[in-house]
């Protein structure tokens, strides 16, 4: 077992996160091979520009699933999810 059993990485809908999260994901998953990594995305409709279901399907899911220690997706803010129904749009990609 590594330092952490699970790490939930929250991806934000901003330009810095959009540009560099792939590099950070690859670095972290390689550095801690015994740790399970989960991608956390907000369910808020206000931030669906980059974490739009199409981007999850075409970019985020294929990128993170390459790591042997990929654990899955984590959707945060259940209240916003109930309003937007975001999880129903992305659950099959995980």
UniProtKB/TrEMBL annotation:
Q: Which UniProt keywords apply?
A: Carbohydrate metabolism, Glycosidase, Hydrolase, Polysaccharide degradation, Xylan degradation
InterPro entries linked: GH, Glycosyl_Hydrlase18_Chitinase
Listed GO CC annotations: extracellular region
**A biological process term (GO) from this entry:** xylan catabolic process
- Entry annotated with the keyword Hydrolase: yes
Q: Which GO terms describe its molecular function?
A: chitinase activity
Classification via PANTHER family = ENDOCHITINASE (PTHR45708), XYLANASE INHIBITOR PROTEIN 1 (PTHR45708:SF9)
In its UniProt entry, what is this protein called?
Answer: Xylanase inhibitor protein 1
